[in-house]
Write a structure and sequence with these properties.
This protein has 650 residues and is of the alpha+beta class. It has three domains: 3-16 and 360-628, Rossmann fold (3-Layer(aba) Sandwich), CATH 3.40.50; 24-273, Neuraminidase (6 Propeller); 274-354, Thrombin, subunit H (Beta Barrel), CATH 2.40.10. The strands form nine sheets. An eight-stranded mixed β-sheet has the order 30-31-34-33-35-36-37-38, sandwiched between helices. Strands 2-3-4-5 form a four-stranded antiparallel β-sheet, with no helix packed on it. A four-stranded antiparallel β-sheet has the order 6-7-8-9, with no helix packed on it. The longest helix has 19 residues, at 610-628.
Length: 650
């Protein structure tokens, strides 16, 4: 029988130590004959990305031991940092951003590209091996002393001796260079101020040099092109509102093959994404969301999709190995695994199991998808979505007459999306007595272009409407305590957190910003090339819309800021520099508002090191405990964070 205990103070085995212990963020997957390779981001190893191989005989080994780190800084968010063919590994080393190669039998990787003139001045991503053994890549060049406007993005082919041949130059951005079976080249390109989910074009250059735009352009985004063995080109495009599956034959027009009614693709924040695969027998495996969770299906030629019966809720890195599907999969009570699934049915083979948490599933709160009304504001969309996680702890319960505190989670992007996969970073809170609402506010991906573009020009207004509507929905249902409402988010979610506390005061009683934006005008001048024009669409064209930027910047509304706030920031963040965090902290200090500030050395945009992930989680819990006056759970040894302006002598 659960013991009634004050919410927030529930003893739980889901500690910050468990969150990071032996944890690994599964990244890209490559199939190389009978072998399957994948990458693992490991907090316990300083956040490095290791490359792991499972051979056809079942042997698993680290191909890149420490300190090698297969991670690229192209677009700052990276992705596509490595690839493999015939046992030869090509990868970008994080420390110097040079392209390296490791061949079977070599003791150490060998640098292929020359050292740049400036540290990390030349970067490589989206690697793809060609039949002749060279590599196609996106090359990003940062001239010494130049700002975002001086950065150049191109497609190059790199031979084994490091010789680089320029293939595509001119567009502001390029991605997905892929060589077809007859030698034709395809790639994606887009121009400022568009982001790739706004208007990316799919271009094909035939072997005779003729170029044609297959899909994409104003109001249309093409992503994830794949050549089939018969010379047809497959891709995803949102011409029908949601990203759907298309096929193009040379000399013909692109034809719609399958529309799931929801986005098959995810926004291209990183390179190397894959939500579908061409199987050896002509069938297509693909993933798409419905009712708050992904489905994995096999599309027969000319037939309807056959959804596979699997206990998972999210799929990424969908690849083909013959007629089997290899992917990263996770579920509400299972952390992500690398999985091989026979397309014809049969038992799935777990190639890389999740870590053994040693916990009964009763400790895990299962997400409930909810849809709630929200103000239209001329967007044509008057509802938003969330995954709601109620408190869950088999040993503790909410006392009679008490309702749990609410933690509203605002994802980044803001084109990101919630996920129903087991996330100990959420269970950390629910097992202590918090209710968590992970909000897919308008602008999120998964619901089609119309939903995504409902945030156009409305960032700092529409997203605030939606988080407030979610709070009202749960308060009116008497599911949460209206006196204990917190909002937290990272990056774009950090901006919404700061905006909610400064421009919609009175809704929340606490907040936590992780590397969030405080001054939109400063962001335009300080950030990297990829996002330097992002706000043209989200807020207003720059600089003609400067007044709107000023109006939407939390730093300009600190006169209304009286809500306790914790701020967490990476010292080396090039996306949202520390100056943004320090602006809001200075305002909190000047006003005497209770606050805490943790600056992590060696961290960029997002925390990767185990000790910093732990410090941020435990620090945020300690912050709420001091603000809302509850005791920290005993036995965890959490050192209380210093909260300026709160009397901790009680």
């Amino acid at each position: 029988m659960p013991t009634p205990l004050p919410c927030g103070s529930w003893p739980t085995p889901i500690t910050s130590d468990l969150v990071v212990r032996a944890a690994a963020r599964l990244g890209e997957v490559c199939v190389d004959g009978v072998d399957v390779w994948w990458s693992e981001g490991r907090p316990a190893e300083g956040g490095r990305s290791a490359v792991v191989r499972r051979t056809g005989t079942g042997t698993v080994d680290d191909v890149l031991p420490p300190p090698w780190n297969a991670r690229t800084r192209v677009h700052e968010y990276g992705g596509g940092a490595w690839t493999v063919a015939d046992g030869v590994l090509w990868f970008t080393e994080f420390a110097d951003q040079r392209l390296h190669r490791l061949t079977p039998g070599d003791a150490e990787p060998r640098a292929v590209t020359p050292a740049p003139d400036a540290p990390a001045g030349v970067r490589f991503a989206d690697l793809q091996v060609t039949p002749d053994g060279s590599v196609l890549a996106v090359r990003e060049t940062h001239p010494a002393g130049g700002g975002p406007a001086a950065v150049v993005n191109e497609v190059v082919r790199i031979d084994g001796d490091g010789t680089a041949t320029l293939l595509v130059s001119g567009p502001d951005f390029v991605s997905d260079p892929r060589q077809g079976p007859d030698g034709a080249l395809c790639w994606l390109q887009w121009q400022h101020p568009d982001m790739p989910w706004d208007a990316a074009q799919l271009v094909v250059r035939s072997v005779d040099g003729a170029e044609s735009v297959v899909a994409g352009g104003p109001g249309e985004s093409a992503v994830q092109p794949r050549w089939a063995a018969d010379g047809t080109l497959w891709f995803l495009c949102d011409r029908t509102d949601a990203w759907s599956l298309y096929r193009w034959r040379p000399g013909g027009d692109a034809e719609l093959v399958f529309d799931a009614g929801s986005d098959i693709a995810l926004p291209q924040w990183v390179f190397g994404q894959s939500r579908y695969a061409l199987l050896a027998d002509g069938r297509i495996a693909l993933a798409y969301p419905r009712d708050g969770a992904d489905r994995l299906a096999v599309l027969e030629p000319g037939g309807a999709p056959r959804e596979l019966d699997l206990p998972y809720a999210a799929y990424a890195q969908v690849r083909a190995q013959g007629t089997s599907v290899v992917c990263v999969a996770g579920g509400p009570d299972a952390e992500p695994v690398v999985l091989r699934i026979p397309a014809d049915g049969g038992a799935a083979d777990v190639l890389r199991p999740a870590r053994d948490l040693g916990l009964d599933p009763a400790w895990f709160s299962r997400p409930e998808p909810v849809t709630f009304p929200t103000p239209d504001r001329g967007t044509g969309v008057a509802e938003a979505h969330a995954l709601v996680y109620p408190p869950a702890n088999p040993d503790a319960g909410v006392p009679d007459g008490e309702r749990p505190p609410l933690l509203v989670v605002v994802h980044g992007g803001p084109t990101g999306a919630t996920s129903a996969v087991l996330n100990l970073g959420i269970q950390y809170w629910t097992s202590r007595g918090f209710c968590v609402a992970d909000v897919d506010y308008r602008g999120s991906t998964g619901y089609g272009r119309r939903y995504r573009e409902a945030l156009k020009g409305g960032w700092g207004v529409v997203d605030l409407d939606d988080v407030e509507a979610c709070v009202r929905f749960l308060v009116d249902a008497r599911r949460v305590d209206p006196a204990r409402l917190a909002i937290r988010g990272g990056s774009a979610g950090g901006y919404t957190t700061l905006a909610a506390l400064t421009m919609r005061p009175g809704t929340f009683t606490a907040g936590a910003s992780h590397y969030g934006l405080a001054d939109l005008s400063a962001f335009v001048g300080d950030t990297h090339k990829f996002e330097s024009r992002y706000l043209d669409g989200l807020v207003a064209p720059w600089p003609s819309g400067r007044a709107v930027y000023e109006e939407r910047s939390p730093i300009n509304h600190v006169d209304a800021l009286d809500t306790p706030l914790a701020v967490f920031q990476g010292e080396e963040d090039a996306v949202v520099p520390p100056a943004q965090a320090e602006l809001i902290v200075a305002a909190l200090r000047a006003k005497g508002v209770p606050h805490a500030y943790l600056l992590f050395s060696g961290e960029q945009h997002g925390f990767r090191r185990a000790e910093n992930i732990r410090a941020a989680l435990d620090g945020e819990l300690s912050f709420y405990a001091q603000v809302w006056r509850f005791d920290l759970p005993p036995g965890e040894g959490i050192t209380p964070i210093q909260v300026v302006g709160v009397d901790s002598s009680r």
